[in-house]
């Protein structure tokens, strides 16, 4: 069975995000970009399923500018077999929105016929948390979001999900969409030989129009601003002073 | 046209997150209808009628909504959405799971995790772990919106909206819930707590987390939270996690103990009314947002704090 894993190129999670002075968006010029961490977990999970003999092929997909090919190479260095770049040209990261990405992925699912799509639960740039669920809906497939454990037996998937207040276990028949939470696995580091090997793996490029998908943004971004700054308070010397301030100054206990 | 708010409930009672979503929906300036979809959910439906500012409660009681799977609830909401200008749900794990399916089936964008309603079509939402606030405008016919509960007060109780039964959508039978393990706790929920005691990697291990923080939380009637580092290290389960990828909270008092204050943690708690930080590292970023900071060894001062209160 094939597994399809969408991967997004985002601002590296160690880099502080900065708002452009003119309020039109984020300043992403000359900053380090990386694979969305939840997508790395998704690639790792898919590769483990292949190593366990359950999956036969892992396809990484990235939608965005041509430079997203780097993110696909990173996925292939973890162990994905091939990559598909959906080249969205000049469209900015903020203009390529979850519904459009879900439609692009649907078009690829229609041709590639994967049994499983593993997505990150959210991207750490727009924090939307939508694409996996939207893809599942467009395909008419079951979904298991926020997965912390996944097992596949034949065409049955059993998924443990992180929900408010605890865990939930779901069963569903494949094909299906799973989105990853932090504790699903710890992605491996790509080794140098695997990075070299990844450069030789097949990488196809396709345009949204060839997939018959309109990727025009649905949400207009009117303004992007820094949130109000919280100012630092005071340091207290000891527990007695802290309790006194909580009781008599802030009056919260 | 009215706003449809999807209630979050356990068939018996309504979760407080729904009350926050109703307050956000009121800012749209239209009638509010609340949907309670469940099985044997008349107690929850009754509770929903008491939410202030609600014009009508739609009740859909059918066996295939017993576990409220995303697929089946979304199918129902999609069918109802034709009569509404807006569909709102709380940005809880249930709301985040279900609502994007509705948006995709309606072929509209979803606006996730809003913190303000500027007008009927314009909303403010945090991006980049709360390092920026984006104001976005939707041109879609139906606005599908999830609400950051910490950003809106709970709607008051005391209403008396009428109930109306609505027919069930078909059972898609796509997923089966085979188990739920909910953490049993006498403590308040993280999302609704007035005081939160939260621990980080500085605690060293899960045993220390429990022996130091539980007595303090008990004394304060506080909920317990944790940083992602503490969750990753296995001190506590994931549902304790406060941060960009965990829960977003804004309690009256947030006490961060042994938490350095990584960006992604601050994203989940910096809107708290009062922040107290205890950390032995004076350079820890958490002190830049704390109202009261105590630079000290937590193993010495936390028991002292618990004893003094």
TrEMBL record, chain A:
The keyword Electron transport applies. Keywords: Electron transport, Transport. Pfam families: ETF. Residues 23-215 form the Electron transfer flavoprotein alpha/beta-subunit N-terminal domain. SUPFAM superfamilies: Adenine nucleotide alpha hydrolases-like. SMART domains: ETF. InterPro entries: ET-Flavoprotein_bsu_CS (IPR000049), ETF_a/b_N (IPR014730), ETF_b (IPR012255), ETF_beta_N (IPR033948), Rossmann-like_a/b/a_fold (IPR014729). Belongs to the ETF beta-subunit/FixA family. This is Electron transfer flavoprotein subunit beta. The lineage of its organism: Bacteria, Pseudomonadati, Pseudomonadota, Betaproteobacteria, Rhodocyclales.
TrEMBL record, chain B:
Residues 3-181 form the Electron transfer flavoprotein alpha/beta-subunit N-terminal domain. The keyword Electron transport applies. Signal peptide: none annotated. Keywords: Electron transport, Transport. Pfam families: ETF (PF01012), ETF_alpha (PF00766). Belongs to the ETF alpha-subunit/FixB family. This is Electron transfer flavoprotein subunit alpha/FixB family protein. It comes from Aromatoleum toluvorans. The lineage of its organism: Bacteria, Pseudomonadati, Pseudomonadota, Betaproteobacteria, Rhodocyclales.
């Amino acid at each position: 069975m094939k597994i399809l894993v969408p991967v997004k190129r985002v601002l590296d999670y160690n880099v502080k995000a900065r708002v452009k002075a003119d309020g039109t968006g984020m300043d992403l010029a000359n900053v380090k970009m990386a694979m969305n961490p939840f997508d790395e977990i998704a690639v790792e999970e898919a590769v483990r399923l292949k190593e366990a003999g359950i999956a036969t092929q892992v396809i990484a997909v990235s939608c965005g500018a041509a430079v997203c090919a780097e993110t696909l190479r990173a996925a292939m260095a973890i162990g994905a077999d091939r990559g598909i770049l959906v080249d969205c040209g000049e469209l900015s990261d903020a203009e390529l929105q979850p519904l459009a990405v879900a439609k692009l992925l649907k078009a690829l699912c229609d041709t590639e016929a994967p049994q499983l799509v593993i997505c990150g639960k959210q991207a750490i740039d727009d924090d939307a948390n939508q694409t996996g669920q939207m893809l599942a809906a467009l395909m008419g497939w079951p979904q298991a979001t926020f997965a912390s454990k996944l097992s596949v037996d034949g065409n049955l998937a059993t998924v443990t999900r992180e929900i408010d207040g605890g865990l939930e276990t779901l069963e569903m028949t494949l094909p299906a969409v799973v989105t990853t939470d932090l504790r699903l696995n710890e992605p491996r580091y790509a080794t140098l030989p695997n990075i070299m090997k990844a450069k030789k793996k097949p990488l196809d490029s396709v345009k949204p129009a060839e997939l018959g998908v309109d990727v025009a943004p649905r949400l207009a971004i009117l303004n992007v601003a820094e949130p109000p700054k919280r100012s630092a308070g005071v340091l207290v010397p000891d527990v007695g002073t802290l309790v006194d301030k909580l009781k008599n100054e802030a009056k919260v206990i | 046209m009215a706003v449809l708010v999807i209630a979050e409930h356990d068939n018996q009672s309504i979760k407080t997150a729904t009350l926050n979503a109703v307050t956000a929906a009121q800012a749209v300036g239209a009638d509010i209808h609340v949907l309670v979809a469940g099985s044997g959910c008349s107690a929850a439906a009754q509770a929903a009628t008491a939410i202030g500012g609600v014009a009508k409660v739609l009740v859909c009681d059918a066996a295939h909504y017993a576990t409220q799977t995303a697929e089946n609830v979304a199918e129902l909401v999609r069918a109802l959405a034709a009569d509404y200008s807006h569909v709102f749900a709380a940005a809880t794990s249930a709301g985040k799971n279900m609502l994007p399916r509705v948006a995709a089936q309606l072929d509209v964008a979803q606006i996730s995790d809003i913190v303000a309603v500027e007008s009927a079509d314009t909303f403010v939402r945090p991006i980049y772990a709360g390092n920026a606030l984006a104001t976005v405008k939707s041109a879609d016919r139906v606005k599908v919106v999830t609400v950051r509960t910490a950003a809106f007060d709970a709607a008051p109780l005391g209403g008396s909206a009428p109930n109306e039964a609505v027919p069930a959508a078909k059972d898609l039978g796509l997923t089966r819930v085979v188990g739920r393990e909910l953490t049993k706790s006498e403590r308040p929920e993280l999302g609704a707590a007035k005081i939160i005691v939260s621990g980080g990697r500085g605690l060293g291990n899960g045993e220390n987390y429990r022996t130091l923080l539980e007595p303090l939380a008990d004394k304060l009637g506080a909920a317990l939270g944790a940083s992602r580092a503490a969750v990753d290290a296995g001190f506590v389960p994931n549902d304790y996690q406060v941060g960009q990828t965990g829960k977003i909270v804004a309690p009256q008092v947030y006490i961060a103990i042994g938490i350095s204050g990584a960006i992604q943690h601050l994203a989940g708690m910096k809107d708290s009314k009062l922040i107290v930080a205890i950390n032995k590292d004076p350079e820890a970023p958490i002190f830049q947002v704390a109202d009261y900071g105590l630079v000290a060894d937590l193993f010495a001062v936390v028991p002292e704090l618990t004893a003094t209160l």
